[in-house]
Amino acid sequence: MSADKKRALGRGLSALLDDTSDNSTATAAVAGRPQQPHNVVSDSDLAGAGSVNEININEIEVNPFQPRTEFEPEALQELSDSIKLQGLIQPITVRRVSAHHYQLISGERRLRASKLAGLKHIPAYVRSANDQQMLEMALIENIQRENLNAIEVALSFQRMLDECNLKQEELGERVSKNRSTVTNYLRLLRLPPAIQAAIRDGQVTMGHAKALITINDPTRQLYINQQIIEQGLSVRKVEEMVRAMQKAPEKKESRPAAAEGLSFQMKKIQDDLASKFSTRVQLKVDQKGKGAIEIPFLSADDLHRILEMLDW
């Protein structure tokens, strides 16, 4: 790994790895010119830290802390085809749990593609790391990916705060981002689930989301979100709509006492309905199980949209 690349990963990852001897070996490996043959690891023989080891691919379990859950099949197949022709150029990183048992720290995409290519052994750096270090390394490595969507980044940031006991300033140092950038990502997780899904699926951009976050009313957020998807609104247009809404007096709605006592199952139904109709839905249920469903709308067009979804 070159010095520039290592700096790009952030000081936190370098500190966690704490292994300056890797630079020359990694650089040569990436260039396809390993300094020395990979060490084939056996039960009683494990090469020292900093060297590249050939490990039985069936002895590696995926990282239980891996924040990335989706891998594009087409891109995975392309990498697999490349591995078949040229081998795996960039080693994965693992920690040894016991004899014949390794846990992946980083490189799950490479591991999956190697299995797809039919490899029996895979080059890997073997390191020592506790669970928190593993989580932090996996999260930092994952955050550096260019194709990660904003929600995945936000979830990774939140996990680092919650599970690694970091403050926002420390998190920013770990991932080489300023605090305001970290804060903007974390604020995405306050948006309704339907909007988070739209960001994840690429229907709504980070620019759109920043504008939506400034609206306090989830019903209005969901309404504009739906307009973005259906009409392909630009970020500037959304910002204009948000400013207009903020100038208009906001109707304060009283939350019925019955809603406070909803069961977990009823709250889930309420959230699912809100996602389906892209507006805040309210369930009112009494002690006998009787109740009502309220679906608010912001305009005649919004009402027409909801009625169409109900096949009215």
TrEMBL record:
Keywords, in A-Z order: Chromosome partition, DNA-binding
Region of interest (Disordered), residue spans: 14-45
Domain ParB-like N-terminal: from-to ranges: 53-143
Coiled coil: none
Top-rank taxon: Bacteria
Keyword DNA-binding listed: yes
Keyword DNA-binding: yes
InterPro entries for the chain: Chromosome_partition/occlusion (IPR050336), HTH_ParB/Spo0J (IPR041468), ParB/RepB/Spo0J (IPR004437), ParB/Sulfiredoxin_sf (IPR036086), ParB_dimer_C (IPR057240), ParB_N (IPR003115)
PANTHER family per UniProt: CHROMOSOME-PARTITIONING PROTEIN PARB-RELATED (PTHR33375:SF1)
Family assignment from sequence similarity: Belongs to the ParB family.
UniProt protein name: ParB/RepB/Spo0J family partition protein
Organism for this UniProt entry: Mucilaginibacter jinjuensis
Classification of source organism: Bacteria, Pseudomonadati, Bacteroidota, Sphingobacteriia, Sphingobacteriales
